[in-house]
C-alpha cells in the first residue's frame, strides 16, 4: 500500500513528474552516450596500430610523426633519404621494415606509397592483420588498393579507374591525370585511418612525379609506360618507415641509435608510448565532456528536487492526514524518497534502453558518418557503476525535499490551522 | 477503554502561558463525550495531546491502561495507528487515492489485516454509493467525504475516536444524518468517542457533554 501511495501520488502530479522524468532521462542518456563513445574512441584510438616497434621519420616532434604516419593528419616537414632507410633497415636486430611515402591525395583521402610488406606487417587492434575484402595487393605500377571507407564513399569496385591529386588539399587543381590508376584491392573495414587511405606502391609514387618538379607538372612531357623499369622507379626519398624488431628488448637501444644517426637528423618513436602521450593531450577534452554531462545530470536532479520540494507545500494537508493515520515522520521521509527513486529509476532504465536502441539501430550509420565504431554492448561494469551512481545521487538530492517533508511531518498538527 | 487525565499542563513554548491545564478528568469506556467551546481555547490542542501528536511529558495521560506521557514519539505513532481513529473538520482523505485505497491505507498503517469485504460492508453501512468507491476522494461531495472519513477511522477497529468539528461544512440535514450515523456506529462498536465543536446544538446527540472552559483551569 505504501508503494501504491507513492505511485498514485506521482500519477496525481503526472505533468510535473513527466517533465522531471524526461529531464533526467535525457541527461542520463547524454551521460551514458558520452561515456560510451569516449570509451569506444579511446579503444579505437589505441587500436590504430599494433605490432610495429618503431616508426622513423625526419627529425620532428614525436606526436607530429605519429599523426602523419599513422593518423594521416598533417604533413611531414622533411623527407628522409632512401639510403638512410636502407642503412637502418638492414641492421642486425631488424626483422622487417615498411617504407611510407606521403604527400598526395585522392578526393580528400590520403595516398600512401608503400611496399607490399605493409599488408603483411601492419597490424591494428589486437594484432589483427589487414584483410582484403576483394582483390589483392598491388602488382603493377598503376595498381591501387583502397581502404573500406574510400571504396564505400566513392563507390569504387575492382577495376575502377581513379586519378590521384597532387598535394593533400581536399580540392586540388593539380591532378595526376596523365597517370590513371586501377583499383585492384579493397580492404575490409578496420575502424582505423587505414579505412581512409589509398595505397600505391613506392614505384608508382615515383612514376606519377616523374614529369613534376616543385609541385608543378612540366609541360610537354608525358610518362611513357614502357620506360618505367624497376631501377628507374627507385625512390630517392621517403617520408617515414615502420620497423619490426627481432627482439623487443633492443627497441630502446635502436631508438637511441636512430635518434643519434649521423648522416641525417631522424626521429624514432615507439607507437604505443606516443599514442598514450597523445591520448593524454586529448584527455582534457575528454574530461570536459564528462564534466559537462555530469553538470547536465546535476541540473536535472536538482530539477527533480525542486519539483518534489514545491509539491511538499501542496501536500501539507496530506502529511497531516498521514500523521493522523499513525504514520511516523520517517515513513513520510521515505515516501518522498520512494517517489524520487521511482522517477530516477524509470529515467535511468529509459535512458539505457534508448541508448541501446540507438546504438543497435544506428550503429552502422555512426561508423559510416563519424568513423566511430560503437559496440552494442552496454552491459559493462562501468555503465553499471554509472547507473548506480546516478541512482545514488538521485537518492541523496531527494533528501532535500524528503527532509523538508520530515520536519513538516514532525511539526504537523491534526487541525486545519 | 477509559481515558484518564491527571495534572495535564501544556504550553507550546517553555515559560509561556499554559494553553491547557486540566487537574483531573476521566472518560469511561464506551462513552461518547461532547466538548464544546469557542475556537482558540485549546480544543484542538487537547485532541492533539490525546492523539499523541503533541508530547506532554509532565502529565499523566492514560488511555486504555497505557501511559501516553511515558511513550516515545515512535510508540505514540504506533499507538495512534492501532487504537485511535481521527476525523478532521474536512479534507480527511488522500485526494488522489480512491475511496477503497484510502481506507486500505489506514488499515495498512495500523498493520491490521482487512478484507475487501470488510471495507465494502462498512462503506455500505455508511451509505457511500458503490458507484463512487473507485473514484478519487477529491471527486466526492463533502458529505460523502466525511462519511468515508468515519469508515476509514472505524476500519481498524479503534478503541478511541477523536472527532474535530466534522460537520462545520455540512448543511443542517446532512449534519444530522452524519451525526446519527456516527453515533450509531460508535455505539455498535463500543468505541469511546470524543467530539469537539463550537456548535452547542450538537449536544443533544451525546450522553456526556462538557464545556472546555469548565475543564480547563487556565484563565
Automatic annotation (TrEMBL), chain A:
Residue intervals of the ABC3 transporter permease C-terminal domain: 291-407
Ranges for domain MacB-like periplasmic core: 20-208
A Pfam family assignment: FtsX
Membrane topology designation: Multi-pass membrane protein
Main location: membrane
TM helices/strands, residue ranges: 15-34, 288-309, 330-363, 383-406
Metal-binding is among the record's keywords: no
Subcellular localization: Cell membrane
Keywords assigned by UniProt, alphabetized: Cell membrane, Membrane, Transmembrane, Transmembrane helix
Cell membrane as UniProt keyword: yes
Gene Ontology cellular-component annotations: plasma membrane
Protein name: Putative ABC transport system permease protein
TrEMBL record, chain B:
Name of the protein in its database record: Putative ABC transport system ATP-binding protein
GO MF term list: ATP binding; ATP hydrolysis activity; transmembrane transporter activity
GO CC annotations, alphabetized: plasma membrane
Keyword set includes Ribonucleoprotein: no
Taxonomic source organism: Methylophaga sulfidovorans
SMART domains cross-referenced by the UniProt entry: AAA
SUPFAM superfamilies: P-loop containing nucleoside triphosphate hydrolases
Keywords, alphabetical: ATP-binding, Nucleotide-binding
Domain (ABC transporter): residue spans on this chain: 3-218
Domain of life: Bacteria
Record flagged with keyword ATP-binding: yes
Amino acid at each position: 500500500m505504501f508503494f501504491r501511495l507513492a505511485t498514485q501520488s506521482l500519477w496525481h502530479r503526472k505533468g510535473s513528474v513527466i517533465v522531471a522524468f524526461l529531464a533526467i532521462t535525457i541527461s542520463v542518456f547524454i551521460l551514458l552516450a558520452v561515456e560510451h563513445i569516449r570509451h569506444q574512441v579511446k579503444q579505437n584510438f589505441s587500436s590504430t596500430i599494433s605490432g610495429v616497434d618503431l616508426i622513423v621519420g625526419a627529425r620532428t616532434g614525436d606526436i607530429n610523426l605519429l599523426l602523419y604516419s599513422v593518423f594521416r593528419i598533417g604533413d611531414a616537414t622533411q623527407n628522409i633519404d632512401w639510403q638512410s632507410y636502407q642503412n637502418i633497415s638492414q641492421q642486425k636486430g631488424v626483422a622487417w621494415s615498411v617504407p611510407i611515402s606521403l604527400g598526395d591525395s585522392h578526393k580528400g583521402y590520403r595516398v600512401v606509397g608503400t611496399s607490399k610488406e605493409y599488408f603483411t606487417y601492419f597490424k591494428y587492434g589486437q594484432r589483427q592483420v589487414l584483410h582484403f575484402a576483394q582483390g589483392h595487393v598491388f602488382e603493377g605500377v598503376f595498381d591501387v588498393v583502397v581502404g573500406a571507407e574510400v571504396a564505400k564513399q566513392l563507390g569504387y569496385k575492382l577495376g575502377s579507374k581513379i586519378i590521384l591529386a597532387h598535394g593533400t588539399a581536399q580540392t586540388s587543381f593539380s591532378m595526376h591525370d596523365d597517370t590513371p590508376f586501377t583499383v585492384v584491392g579493397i580492404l575490409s573495414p578496420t575502424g582505423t585511418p587505414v579505412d581512409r587511405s589509398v595505397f600505391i606502391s613506392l614505384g608508382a609514387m615515383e612514376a606519377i612525379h616523374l614529369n613534376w618538379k616543385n609541385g608543378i607538372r612540366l609541360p610537354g612531357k608525358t610518362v611513357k609506360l614502357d620506360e618505367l623499369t624497376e631501377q628507374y622507379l627507385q625512390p630517392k626519398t621517403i617520408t617515414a618507415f615502420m620497423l619490426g624488431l627481432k627482439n623487443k628488448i633492443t627497441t630502446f637501444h635502436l631508438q637511441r641509435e636512430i635518434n643519434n644517426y649521423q648522416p641525417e637528423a631522424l626521429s624514432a618513436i615507439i607507437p604505443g608510448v606516443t599514442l598514450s602521450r597523445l591520448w593524454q593531450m586529448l584527455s582534457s577534452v575528454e574530461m570536459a565532456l564528462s564534466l559537462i554531462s555530469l553538470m547536465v545530470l546535476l541540473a536535472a536532479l536538482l530539477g527533480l528536487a525542486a519539483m518534489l520540494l514545491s509539491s511538499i507545500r501542496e501536500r501539507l494537508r496530506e502529511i497531516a492526514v498521514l500523521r493522523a493515520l499513525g504514520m511516523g515522520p520517517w515513513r513520510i521521509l521515505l515516501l518522498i524518497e520512494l517517489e524520487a527513486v521511482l522517477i530516477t529509476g524509470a529515467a535511468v532504465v529509459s535512458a539505457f534502453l534508448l541508448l541501446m536502441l540507438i546504438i543497435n539501430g544506428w550503429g552502422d550509420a555512426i561508423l559510416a558518418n563519424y568513423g566511430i565504431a560503437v559496440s552494442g554492448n552496454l552491459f559493462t561494469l562501468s555503465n553499471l557503476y554509472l547507473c548506480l551512481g546516478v541512482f545514488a545521487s538521485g537518492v541523496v538530492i531527494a533528501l532535500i525535499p524528503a527532509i523538508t517533508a520530515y520536519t513538516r511531518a514532525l511539526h504537523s498538527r491534526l487541525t486545519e490551522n | 477503554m477509559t481515558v484518564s487525565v491527571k495534572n495535564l499542563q501544556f504550553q507550546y513554548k517553555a515559560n509561556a502561558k499554559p494553553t491547557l491545564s486540566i487537574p483531573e478528568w476521566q472518560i469511561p469506556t464506551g462513552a461518547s463525550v461532547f466538548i464544546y467551546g469557542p475556537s482558540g481555547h485549546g480544543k484542538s490542542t487537547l485532541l492533539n495531546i490525546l492523539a499523541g501528536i503533541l508530547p506532554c511529558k509532565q502529565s499523566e495521560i492514560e488511555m486504555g491502561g497505557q501511559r501516553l506521557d511515558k511513550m516515545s514519539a515512535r510508540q505514540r505513532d504506533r499507538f495512534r495507528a492501532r487504537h485511535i481513529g481521527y476525523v478532521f473538520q474536512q479534507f480527511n482523505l488522500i485526494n488522489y487515492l480512491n475511496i477503497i485505497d484510502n481506507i486500505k491505507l489506514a488499515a495498512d498503517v495500523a498493520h491490521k489485516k482487512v478484507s475487501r469485504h470488510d471495507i465494502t460492508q462498512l462503506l455500505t453501512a455508511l451509505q457511500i454509493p458503490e458507484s463512487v468507491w473507485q473514484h478519487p476522494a477529491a471527486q466526492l461531495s463533502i458529505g460523502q467525504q466525511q462519511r468515508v472519513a468515519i469508515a476509514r477511522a472505524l476500519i481498524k477497529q479503534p478503541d478511541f475516536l477523536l472527532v474535530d468539528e466534522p460537520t462545520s461544512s455540512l448543511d443542517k440535514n446532512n449534519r444530522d444524518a452524519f451525526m446519527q450515523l456516527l453515533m450509531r456506529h460508535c455505539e455498535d462498536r463500543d468505541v469511546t468517542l470524543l467530539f469537539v465543536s463550537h456548535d452547542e446544538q450538537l449536544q443533544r446527540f451525546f450522553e456526556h457533554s462538557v464545556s472546555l472552559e469548565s475543564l480547563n483551569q487556565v484563565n
